[in-house]
């Protein structure tokens, strides 16, 4: 599990194929010292397993399904990627809950600068829009972002503050670029197969479940 807060921007140093599995080596000087074989690492929002490490280099592998559902097949040596190690028990949850299970690839429609900030508009893949909630969360290439009001089925927009532009490569995106999208797992929960009650969670439902307003303290 991750938070969508990028630890560093790493670089793909090599891409190879081994028995139908993509093997990628990444230069990750900030993350590598704390990673061991078997650890999870989010790479542009994709949860991958560390299979080897040496100095600032980390090796990860991806099977065919991961390559099909993400942008990974288009990666090449020199590509810069967002990196985030898995969340540890007791760590601060500064973003939102991100699983690293990409729901699909979106396409950048435009990136509009607004002073030191920017607005990024993306066309989502088919079926993704049902998880988009006004002011809700999603991950774009592993970066935790908040949706602007009234996202649509054809496109949605997120605002990028200067901090985000300075610590990610989202400001480098251009129209037509593919991005890995993961919807908020809490938004997807309302459509879980077999769920006893698939209605959206509302304040009224919370009260109906037995919770009461607090008066002068916590309950």
Structural class assignment: mainly beta
Biggest sheet overview: 6 strands, antiparallel, barrel
- In the CATH classification, which architecture of the largest domain applies? Beta Barrel
Tell me the fraction of residues in β-strands, as a range.
35-45%
| CATH classification, class level of the largest domain | Mainly Beta
Number of helices: 4
Number of discrete domains: 2
Shape: globular
Which value, in Å, is the CA radius of gyration? 19 Å
How many beta strands in the DSSP annotation?
Answer: 12
Strands in their spatial order, largest beta sheet: 1-2-5-4-3-6
The CATH topology annotation of the largest domain reads as Elongation Factor Tu (Ef-tu), domain 3
Q: Low-confidence segments, ≥5 residues, pLDDT <50?
A: 214-219
What is the residue-mean pLDDT, rounded to a whole number? 89
SSE topology string: EEEEEHEEEEEEHEHH
How would you characterize this protein structure?
There is one protein chain. With 219 residues, this protein is mainly β. It has two domains: 8-85, Beta Barrel (Elongation Factor Tu (Ef-tu), domain 3), CATH 2.40.30; 104-189, Beta Barrel (Elongation Factor Tu (Ef-tu), domain 3), CATH 2.40.30. It has helices spanning 64-69, 162-167, 185-189, 203-208; strands at 8-18, 21-27, 40-43, 46-54, 57-62, 80-85, 104-114, 117-123, 137-140, 143-146, 156-160, 178-183. A six-stranded antiparallel beta barrel has the order 1-2-5-4-3-6. The protein has a six-stranded antiparallel sheet with strand order 10-9-12-7-8-11. The longest helix has 6 residues, at 64-69.
